[in-house]
Design a protein that fits this description.
Shape: globular
Strand content: 15-25%
Largest sheet: 7 strands, mixed
Distance between the termini: 21 Å
Structural class: alpha/beta
Number of strands: 16
Helix content: 10-25%
Length: 313
C-alpha cells in the first residue's frame, strides 16, 4: 500500500446541518476502502465523493447511537441492489448484529453477498490483509470503540530510472527486485535489490476516536499515530456539558494528541450549534498546533511513512 488518504463523509454530531452530514469517514488505501461509522445519508455522501462503494471491504461501527449507525442498512441494501458479490465484514459492538438482524427481518431484506458481522471487545486486534485494526473501549454514555489502523511495514520505493540504467528489462525482474530478490541479467550481470529499492518503510497508523470524553484509552490507542481523527463536539464554552454528555471539547482532543505524540490531529463530530467552527480550531491549535478541522468531502493524505532505519518520530 502506498497511497493512504482519509475522506470525510460526515462531520456533524447528533443531527445533520446544511454543511455537515452525520458521522462517517472512509480510509482509502490504494483503492481499497474501510468505512468508519455510517450515519444516516452516508450512501448519498459516498456518491458525491471520490470513494467507490464497491471498494469498501470492511465497515467499523464505533457505537450504537443512531448518528453513527442509521445509514448502515440502506448502504448494505444499495450494495445488494447493485449486485455486489464481494464479501463484506462489519465490526462493532455486540448489538450491531442484533440491530441488523432486526432490520432485515422486519423489512424482508437480504444481501447479494456474504455479510459477516463481528463483535469487537476492548483490546481486540483484527488481522486483515495488509493491515491490522486495534480497538479500545473509550469513555462515552454507551459502549464506544476507538480504532487504530496499523498498516503492515512496506518495502522501500522502487527506483525505476536506476533499474533501467542498469539494464533491467521491464517485466518479472522488476517484481523480483521489488520483493527483495537479486536478479541475473542475460549478460550475466547481477543486479542487487538494494541497488534499486530503498529502505523498508514503517506502516502508517491512523486512529479514529469518537464519541468519547478525554480518557487514557484514547491516548494509548493514539500513541505515535501519523493521524488522529478525534471528536470535538464542543468548544470551551460547553466544557462542563461535554463531560456530562460523554463528549470532548476541541481542547480535549488536542490534549489527547499532545499526550499521545501524534503527528497530526483532525477534528470532527462538530456540534451543529457551531455554524462557525473556527474558534474550536483555534482552541485546539493553542495546545496542539498541528491540528486541522474536517469538513464534509475533505480529504487528508497520510504521510509516506518513515524508513525503518530512521529513529521513531
Amino acid at each position: 500500500m502506498n497511497q493512504v488518504r482519509l475522506v470525510f463523509l460526515g462531520t456533524s454530531a447528533g443531527t445533520p446541518s446544511r454543511e455537515r452530514n452525520l458521522a462517517a469517514m472512509a480510509l482509502v488505501m490504494d483503492g481499497r476502502a474501510l468505512l468508519f461509522d455510517c450515519g444516516e445519508g452516508t450512501q448519498q455522501q459516498i456518491l458525491r465523493s471520490s470513494v467507490r462503494a464497491g471498494a469498501i471491504e470492511a465497515i467499523f461501527i464505533s457505537h450504537m447511537h443512531g448518528d453513527h449507525l442509521y445509514g448502515l442498512p440502506g448502504l448494505l441494501a444499495t450494495m445488494s441492489l447493485h449486485g455486489r458479490s464481494a464479501p463484506l465484514a462489519v465490526f462493532g459492538p455486540e448489538r450491531v448484529a442484533q440491530y441488523l438482524r432486526g432490520v432485515y427481518e422486519a423489512s424482508y431484506a437480504h444481501t447479494s453477498f456474504d455479510l459477516t458481522i463481528h463483535a469487537v471487545s476492548d483490546g481486540a486486534t483484527i488481522a486483515r490483509d495488509g493491515y491490522d485494526v486495534h480497538a479500545r473501549l473509550l469513555d462515552h454514555t454507551a459502549p464506544c470503540l476507538g480504532f487504530c489502523v496499523i498498516e503492515h511495514d512496506r518495502s522501500g520505493a522502487f527506483d525505476l530510472a536506476r533499474a533501467q540504467a542498469l539494464g533491467v528489462p521491464a517485466g518479472p525482474l522488476f517484481g523480483a527486485l521489488q520483493k527483495g530478490r537479486d536478479v541475473t541479467l542475460d549478460d550475466g550481470r547481477v543486479v542487487r535489490s538494494a541497488a534499486v529499492v530503498g529502505p523498508p518503510r514503517a506502516g502508517r497508523r491512523i486512529v479514529y476516536c469518537t464519541d468519547t470524553r478525554l480518557c487514557a484509552a484514547a491516548i494509548e490507542l493514539a500513541r505515535g499515530a501519523d493521524i488522529l481523527v478525534h471528536e470535538a463536539t464542543y468548544g470551551d464554552d460547553m466544557a462542563a456539558e461535554a463531560g456530562k454528555r460523554g463528549h470532548s471539547t476541541a481542547a480535549d482532543a488536542a490534549r489527547v494528541a499532545a499526550a499521545a505524540g501524534v503527528q497530526r490531529l483532525v477534528l470532527t463530530h462538530i456540534s451543529p450549534r457551531y455554524t462557525d467552527a473556527a474558534p474550536l480550531l483555534a482552541q485546539a491549535r493553542a495546545i496542539f498546533p498541528e491540528t486541522e478541522l474536517a469538513a464534509d468531502f475533505a480529504e487528508v493524505q497520510a504521510p509516506s511513512g518513515r524508513h525503518l532505519a530512521d529513529p521513531p518520530r
